Amino acid sequence: MIEVRPGGRRRIDRVLAPGYASEPEALPLPTLRERRDEAAQEETDLSYLRRLLHARIDIVKAEQLRRSSDDPGDEDVVARLTAILADNALGPATGSGRHQTLEPTRAGEYRRAAEALVGDANLSDVVSLSDDRLAETLDSYREQEGSVSQRRREVQAVVDTFNAEIARRYARGTASVDELLDSQRSVSGPDNEQDPA
Fold this sequence. Notes:
By secondary structure, the protein is mainly α. The protein has a domain at 28-86 and 123-172. The chain has 6 helices and no strands. It has helices spanning 11-15, 29-68, 81-90, 107-116, 131-172, 177-188. InterPro entries: RsiG-like, RsiG-like_dom. Residues 20-85, 121-182 form the RsiG-like domain. Pfam families: RsiG.
């Protein structure tokens, strides 16, 4: 389960802290953008973890299906891994449909966390698990996926709050694209500016 620790130092602790997005209208525009970007990065990382868990759920379910079929055959789940994962990728979308341009920042950490849910079994070992252990593994993955999905929705609400406030300021004329471009130029510095010729 993904817990949010009050006063914690992790990004998710900050993004989901009670006061983080409570009064966006009182924040200066640069702070709004900074917080929105931090929340968007957390959303990206949670989406990555969610995809990892979905892949593992698909693998366990495929092994259960193989075992329950009349002719389980010799081909194990690992040999059919590409097809199993492709079936999920081609199915109907179940996420938020939000386009994300950021890369996950904690990919290795999340892969290890997903594997730790199965204890001493790894994906190449899924065929050797007992039926009971396979069912426990699936329950564990589903429980974790539910927790990740819940936190992801909460973080998305924070991103949406900041985006709405930024859009409101542009609509009212209290923020301008020129200010945004000026602030980006000052961050990148004159050495990084492109030659217009």
